[in-house]
Amino acid sequence: MIELKKVENWSKAIQAISAFISEGNFRFNDNGIAFKAVDPSQIVLVNYAIPKSAFDEFEVEPTFVGIDLVELNKIMQRILPKDKMLMNVDDNELHIKLEGEISRSFKLPLIDVNDEEINIPATKFDAVIEINARILKEVLKDAQLFGSSVVLRVKGSQLVIEARGSHGNMHALIKETKNLTVKSPTEVVSKYSLNFFVNALREADPAKNVRIELKSDAPMKVNYKIGEGDIQFLLAQMIL
Q1: CATH classification of the domain holding 136
Q2: Domain boundary at 109, 139, 164, which?
């Protein structure tokens, strides 16, 4: 049985994952819960882990189960402010109980999902960026006025974000301050899907930082915390 009294962060994590992945395998073990999958378009890899210590009770046999993420997200969006969550897995179903002012029980059938192990590429990135999530989200909103893709340029202590479209261009220069730190010994330029980038950041806490790792013409790694859990997106590059 798994018990979680503060369910909001778990709900946010499921929301973040289900934005890209409709079904996938959750691994329950003595360390906590882990999830790793690639979206159907092969553009983004999602890697999530939440430690056992994040839960109020965590007693579960190690298991590897396939879940419909869309349906699980629907349940998580029904959480009320005072609810706690009880979760258990048997041979055929995921059992979820939400207890608060009312008590509600849900069952999701387990599904067969390709259990092939996904390896995360061992990329040596040239640039490491720590940026306030609110600032980054605002700049990407500006980029969405004109483009469907976004170019990131790192040079020295500056981050440039650009978008181009038939109706106009957007250029944002973010200098190193308390909201941005940049570590890059060389200039880095790379291009990514704007929609995928925005969706990856959707559940990032506006008051906290997002970590971005870049290499020219290579996948981008986006990483941030959701409560005690850690979520990572590896976003494929586009041709410049």
Answers
A1: 3.10.150.10
A2: 109
Of the candidates 239, 240, 231, the residue with the CA atom closest to the CA atom of residue 44: 231
Going by pLDDT thresholds of 50, 70 and 90, the confidence category of residue 140 is very high
**Residue 208: domain span:** 127-227
Residues 6+ apart with CB under 8 A from 19: 199, 200, 202
Map tokens 């009320």 to a residue: 80
Q: 39-53, 115-129, 224-238: which has the minimum mean pLDDT?
A: 115-129
Instruction: Tell me if 158 sits within 8 A of 181, measured CB to CB.
Output: no
Judged on CB neighbours under 10 Å (0-12, 13-18, 19+), 236 is: middle
Amino acid at residue number 46: V
Give the CATH number for residue 76: 3.70.10.10
Domain boundary among 54, 78, 109: 109
What 3-state class would DSSP assign to 13? Answer: helix
**Cα 220 to Cα 15: distance, rounded to the nearest angstrom:** 21
Query: Each residue of 72-82: pLDDT tens digit?
Result: 999 999 999 89
Judgement on whether residues 102 and 176 belong to the same structural domain of the protein: no
- Give the DSSP H or E segment for 182: strand 180-183
Q: What does the block give as tokens for 168?
A: 């106009």
Examine residue 117 and state whether it is found in any structural domain, yes or no: no
Q: Can you give the C-alpha Rg of the chain in angstroms?
A: 19
Say whether pTM exceeds 0.90.
Answer: yes
Averaged confidence pLDDT in the chain: 94
